[in-house]
Amino acid sequence: FFPPGFQVAPETKAVMKWLRSIPFVLSASLHGGELVVTYPYDYSRHPMEEKMFSPTPDEKVFKMLAKAYADAHPVISDQSELRCGGNFVKRGGIINGAEWYSFTGGMADFNYLHTNCFEITVEVGCEKFPLEEELFTIWHENKGALLNYMEMVHRGIKGIVSDKFGNPIKNARISVRGIQHDVTTGN
């Protein structure tokens, strides 16, 4: 997953281990520096290509998840192109990560490729490092969108895979026709 020689921080390794041990299905990474919601893949299929659309097999699901967040965010959903993040208005406030800019080693790509967890990245504001007094406003701008996004956990595959005796089957592979990405059952 990481390029040769790439140093993975101990805390990143710990999060990766945690993600593999608990069957999370939905997550979001909060960043600063822009006002947009991105979704995988963040790494271009063609590493020499910048700003290249690189969809996952679950493109429709990721767009739905990103839109659920963006549409519930009072500023991202504002149609003014003159505001922070206004260059994403025509895209509905969302973009495929690699189409915006490609980078390797992102958690959203890791989650999709190595766990059952679908992760979006939320750029919560145009300030990369907001001042302490700005955090209250940023929280209130994102609170409803975060709650709306969390409710999306009820969409998609859910249920219990069991044997003929009703015992749950751990690590059963579930395939959806037409989507080349399987998920597995938890404990």
From TrEMBL:
- Which cofactors does this protein require? Zn(2+)
Q: Which GO terms describe its molecular function?
A: metallocarboxypeptidase activity; zinc ion binding
User: Per its UniProt record, what InterPro entries does this chain match?
Assistant: CarboxyPept-like_regulatory, CARBOXYPEPT_ZN_2, Peptidase_M14, Peptidase_M14_domain
The segment(s) forming the Peptidase M14 domain are: 1-153
Q: Name one GO cellular component term.
A: extracellular space
Q: Which GO terms describe its biological process?
A: peptide metabolic process; protein processing
Q: Sorted alphabetically, which SMART domains does this protein's record hold?
A: Zn_pept
Q: Does the keyword Glycoprotein apply?
A: yes
Q: Which Pfam families match?
A: Peptidase_M14
Instruction: Enumerate the UniProt keywords alphabetically.
Output: Carboxypeptidase, Glycoprotein, Hydrolase, Metal-binding, Metalloprotease, Protease, Zinc
Electron transport as a keyword? no
Q: Where is the active site?
A: 123
Concerning its family, UniProt says:
Belongs to the peptidase M14 family.
Name it.
CBPZ Carboxypeptidase
